[in-house]
Amino acid sequence: MQSPNYRPVSRKDLARLLDLDIEDRRRLNSVLRELEAAGELMRVRKNRWARPARGRWIRGLLTLDIRGTGVVVDDQDPAARVRIPRELLGTAVEGDRVVVECDRRQHRGRAVGDPFGRVLRVLERTRPVTAGLLRRAHRYWYVIPTDPHEARNIYVTGASESVEFVEDHLVAVELAPWRPDAHRLEGVVVEDLGPPGTPAVEIQALIRRLGLAMEFPQDALREAMHVPREFSAKDLEGRRDHRDQECFTLDPSDARDFDDAVYAERRADGGWDVYVHIADVAHYVPAGSAIDREAFQRGTSVYLVDRALTMLPPELTTDICSLKPEKDRLSHTVHVRLDSVLSVVEAHTYPSIIRSRARLNYDDVQAFLMGQSDAGVPADLRERVRELFGLTSQLRRRRIEAGALAFTMPEVRCELDNVGRILAIRRRGADEAYSLIEELMLLANCAVARRLWKSRYPAIYRIHEEPDARQWEAMETELWDLGQRGFEPDPHALNRILAAVAGSPREHIVALAILRNLKRAQYSADCQPHFGLAVRPYTHFTSPIRRYPDLVVHRVLRAIENHQPPPLSRAAAEAIAEHSSQMERLADEAERESVEISRIEYYDRLLHQGDVGPWEGIVVDRIRKGWIVELVDTLQRGLLADVLVRKPLSPGQAISVRLARVDTHRKWVDFAPADGERPAGRGHHRTR
Predict the structure, then answer these.
(1) This prediction's pTM
(2) In degrees rounded to 5, what are phi and psi of residue 406?
(3) Which residues have C-beta within 8 Å of that of residue 527, sequence separation ≥ 6?
(4) What is the pLDDT of residues 44-81, one digit of tens each?
(5) Residue 573 to residues 86, 530, 568: CA-CA distances in angstroms?
(6) Which residues are CB-neighbours of 233 under 8 A, at least 6 positions away?
(7) Domain total in the chain
(8) Do 558 and 439 share a domain, yes or no?
(9) Dihedral angle at the C-alpha atoms of 34, 38, 40, 45, nearest 10 degrees?
């Protein structure tokens, strides 16, 4: 096949060319599939086999944009992208691993920036189940997918035994396996999720569409039930006892699991001793156990608006591993000694036992630091919290001076009633309180990463690549359009731009223009720099209850401390890093969409009640039909059509708007100027 004269042939022809006997012909199929899975071979048209020809055929993950056009990034070259017109997707869907034949010629007479291509084969359906609205035609049933990127309906070929067809209900559909001769999407209805319109049902459909795990397998639950709640003398061997420290946890007010507790004290020489205690999950979850296997598959906990899909069973997440106040807990400690100018003098890691003195939350600590109220902070911890804030403020200043990017993106918090409907949406505040704990976690992660790197043990690092030339150019263009001058492809220049707009209406959109053109941070077995934090090496160690890479890092660290052999190979570290990065992206997508679902239901309800504003917004972007406006309080975005605008607008401009229309399927709203006409009406599910 490596010969330049080779032309793709079928398995039957391969067997003939290789002059295989009957026994070897039987083995040939499995060998070909193994080579295909390894990326050494691929099947092209008419089931013929070939080596991947660079530039002609690529393998990768299929994503769809809002117009239903496919995009595939080459597994072997992340900088290479291929666009797939909707009519050339075949029956491939979002999330499929596909083989694409590339063609740099014009498509329908139009040149495109990236080469376009056609899907030749679906190698794997990573999301075999999707969700949608069940509808009935004259002679058949079909499903309209809830995924706004999927413009094709699904032809229903049957249903599970326990499922009854109810028109206009949301259902889960198991897609038919890919076939080269199939011309339409087909599937079997496997679950009736209920009528649309309530966040609980819509989020259930989201969970099914993204393939998120809800129930734990029985073997993992059985293991969790048998995890001891009490310590034995053997459990405490080799642990340092820090139960006399006045450490505390600091988390959101609605947090249920507590990974980390912190303590710091100032020395007589002006330096600091900082202690970061992390839940010792590795003690309770052995590698290869049923709990561990499930945790690897999940990769991370997923925090949706109305529920949490945890990485570990509830007994471990909220009780046994969680650093609850006034409870003795096993932990893994990072002790960092800082000098008087806050440089790291030395750092140590070791197993420990602690007893947290209090569970603090961001809102209470923020009120205390701002001098508004000290009611949420125990009297015996107030001075320590105040000193810690001073320390972490200086640590943050040093990081930014070293080139760390200095922006935080706003988030919203949804307050729900007892049936899961939003009562109110508020922007998350408490920046100072959040920064206090963030700086200490960064300090601990850097200390652990340095120890991993020096050991040369295979491990997992958190990396963030610098933007490439195309990203820097796009970033400069967007910032120029926003009126920002002084751009240079350098983090210090970006920080100067961010500082210039801090506190202004442009702050958020300037930060978005930068963020959109950065690469995504990911996990890797390679120790590479973290551009956004301006550090190397860096890892994730501080959240083993909710992130699988952190749990693995704990195991590697324990092996280093005990002078034991590496607990995982380089190949295993690479596989864990790749899978964890994929699951992190999936979790981010799910969390973002769950907020959109609940927020759209909230505004649809307000529109139905006649509560249409006005609300203050910021113009954030320009599209063909008009301007995109983002509400200040809830971050809800919507379209302000050109035909309604009576004065010139520009990005970053403040504007008062009211609600005009809500499209519950596209998860979109239309705005009108606050002094305009009455709203046009409500949008509903499409009725293709």
Answers:
(1) 0.86
(2) -110, 60
(3) 449, 452, 453, 461, 463, 536, 537
(4) 777 788 776 666 777 888 888 777 788 888 877 766 78
(5) 37, 18, 7
(6) none
(7) 3
(8) yes
(9) 70
